[in-house]
Design goal:
Length: 137
């Protein structure tokens, strides 16, 4: 499976701990594919504080790029704005990088589980977006 082109997933949060925990949860729920699944957290600032770092986002995106595109899921505010700016600039993120409008936790789980099947970027994005419809009651 390591030669297969997989969609990479970057989870961008204002908190390094939140991004890492959501990545761990999503990979855990993806089962056996988690060992090779390209998922990376990009949380907080370089100094470890709360915030958003374009440099951390770019490094995470580069680390998960396997040639099938990169889905970037964000929590809120400056995370969204920073990813939008990086995509608009067009030269800092891997080709095929896309901001996915989805709930952070549920969307991340859906995206990672779907990407683990070898699905393309459109399918990964669709699965993440469907998470807006998850009802809890």
């Amino acid at each position: 499976m390591s030669d297969q082109k997989l969609v990479g997933i970057v989870l961008v949060s204002h908190s390094a701990e939140v991004a890492a925990s959501v990545a761990e949860l999503a990979k855990g729920l993806a089962g056996g594919a988690a060992a090779v699944l390209p998922v990376a957290p990009a949380g907080g600032t370089e100094g470890g504080g709360l915030g958003t770092s374009a440099e951390l986002i770019c490094a995470a995106a580069a680390s998960v790029d396997r040639g099938a595109g990169v889905a970037l899921l964000t929590d809120l505010g400056s995370a969204v704005l920073t990813v939008k700016a990086l995509i608009a600039e067009g030269d800092e993120l891997p080709d095929g990088s896309r901001l996915v409008d989805a709930p952070f936790v549920e969307g991340a789980v859906a995206a990672v589980v779907t990407a683990a099947t070898g699905a393309d970027l459109d399918a990964v994005e669709a699965a993440a977006k469907e998470a807006y419809g998850y009802r809890k009651v």
